[in-house]
Amino acid sequence: MKNGTLILLILLLLFAFPESRPSEETSMKPTRNSAAEPEFTNRLIHETSPYLRQHAHNPVDWYPWGEEALEKARREDKPILLSIGYSACHWCHVMERESFENEAIAEVMNAHFVNIKVDREERPDLDTLYMNYVQMTTGSGGWPMTVFLTPDEVPFFGGTYFPPDDRFGRPGFGRLCLALAEAYREKREEIEARGPEILQRLEAMNTLPAGAAKVTGASLDRAFDQLAPRFDLTHGGFTGAPKFPGSMSLTFLLRHFSRTGRPEGREFVSLTLEKMARGGMYDQLGGGFHRYSVDERWLVPHFEKMLYDNALLSRLYLEAYQLDPQPLYARVVEEILDYVVREMLNPQGGFYSTQDADSEGHEGKFFVWTPAEVGEILGKEESKAFCRYYDVTDGGNFEGSNILNVPRPLEQVAGELSLSAGELARILSEARERLFREREKRVKPHRDEKILTGWNSMMSVSFVEASVVLQRADYLEVAKRNARFLLEHLCRGDRIFRTHKDGVSKLPGYLDDYANLVEHLLALYQATGEREWLDQAVIFNDAMLEQFWDREQAIFFLTGEEHEQLVTPVRDAYDNATPAGSSVAVFNLLKLAILTGNLEYRSIAETNLENMHLPLTRYPNGFGYLLGAADFYLGPVKEIAVVGDPDSDETRRLLEVVHRKFLPNKVVALLDPNDTGGADNLPLLEGKTLVKGRPAAYVCENYTCKAPVIEPDQLDLELGGKP
């Protein structure tokens, strides 16, 4: 149907409204002062989503997605104008300013459509469903997403950003709306006739490709060989621009090196991590990564910061540090996590979702500098060193200002300045602190303060893992507080809510909410040995299988039995910006099978992996997290039981050995000998005791354990260390 007759008809109808620059009388330019007190308030004022509330004073008669809006469309027989975006999206803000605050365009929208605004982060089901349609019919997608639906919710036209007037080769939004309204009136039969075909094609996306097969080491090798031609061996990352981090694929490459010893993947990851950390996509003053780079050099980012990106990237840098303990990797991990604590942690322990790309109406304004600004704060000599190292020039690298980045090594710059490397490092450290304090006085980007269960859990896993690898007890406390917050505010019994804001938790949790929370709880159990976390993980894992696992089709769905039924179900299979809930679920099931001895968990994971074998090996860039799960499935998995008082130095030293090594395929269980029920129903801990009264570690594979060891050096050898 791509570029089909209906789309051609709609484009032809645009010529019924040909003026690209409307007359003064019918101008599509805004007619009210945006700085004045808003005179419009629509239904979005009652929503908790910051993104929806941002549109509460548009002159558009917005509805949130729900029965009120859908029933109105059916009752009045009006098509639906569905707009989907998110709070940190730069072009979403642009379209709002240009079109949704434009009274003339709003008048057209209100006259001809039922207008629905959706926060994609709250409703991934709607976002996935209608993005599939947009990509299917246009060949591309993105946000803001604009889709026109029949009253029965079937899409008939869609796209992304539309300008207010004809530009960029796109029709003006007001003219497009008039043309689509005309098409709906005059060509209703043709639109409705195409509905079944559209739904059939959307439904086909829920069908697994033929070719289920056993996952083998050769499968992972094929996936690696598919990824390798896309390596950018100059700048790191995967070729092309814009350039996204690809953190899950990079993690798979580290696993592949661990499995095969092939150095190409490890070397490529090392190059990528260094280039990203020194680029403008990384916040050189405040820590944390922006979402992606618009160029291939990691220089100019889209400036929004997403919680999930920083969760995945901190985990990647931490794993690289385990494999190769470079100070740069540890520094980046700590700077990311310290940024999250400083900027994204609410007083009760939940993590906020995003920070905007814009501040004071300008993209990136908060983050960029001029030489004059730097000189005013640092003085002549320090500013000279700072500007030389961080590439701050009079010409600038972004709209006349400068994004801080590090194009050359410290030693080279120090030589140019006739300084020692140590002296330059000291100057830069002090300068960063002073500039950071000054930057804190600026108007900060807007922060989306809704708390999402899945994203919070992803971030907490990073805090847990950093706590045991870097020996940061404060990070573990952050993760525990977050878990308690989620259990108290976003869980009821074995059911999970998606989102929390201003004391209100709502929307049934999606697959990724369940799977990520289970992963969070499993990480806490493996770090602490506290049984409560494991027991709770099993409860939510079983609820997840009950709601989201389709036994007949042997696939996971994004929505569960308690969710609203859309025009077609939505699968959760691809690892995109975040891991698919199904990928995380497979990982969890494999770990829980080892810990609990419940082999049904492994059977479900195995079935999913076999069914996904074909896309997993053909399109590995879309399955980075699932490839990690496949690697874990193949094993061998180190099953490590440590028996000892968690607070004793001897126990801690054994655990340090376990956690400092890069052992991607491991499960850890810690048993306090004073906890009489700690080993109940856990095969890995059965019969494990102290050895001669001292803490001991048992290393097992496939439920077969070697003799216990009590010395850290012995344990290091058992785990593959050199003698």
Short structural description:
This protein has 723 residues and is α+β, with helices and mostly antiparallel strands. The protein is built from 27 helices and 22 strands.
CATH architectural arrangement of the largest domain:
Alpha/alpha barrel
Radius of gyration: 27 Å
Overall mean confidence score, pLDDT: 92
Question: What is the approximate shape?
Answer: globular
Oligomer: single chain
Strand content: 5-15%
Largest sheet: 5 strands, mixed
Q: Termini separation (Å)?
A: 64 Å
Discrete helix count: 27
Helix content estimate: 40-55%
Task: Please identify the top-level CATH class of the largest domain.
Answer: Mainly Alpha
Whole-number tally of structural domains: 4
User: What low-confidence regions span 5 or more consecutive residues with pLDDT below 50?
Assistant: 1-5, 11-37
Care to count the β-strands? 22
The SS-based structural class is: alpha+beta
Instruction: Tell me the strand order in the biggest sheet.
Output: 1-3-2-4-5
The CATH topology label of the largest domain is Glycosyltransferase
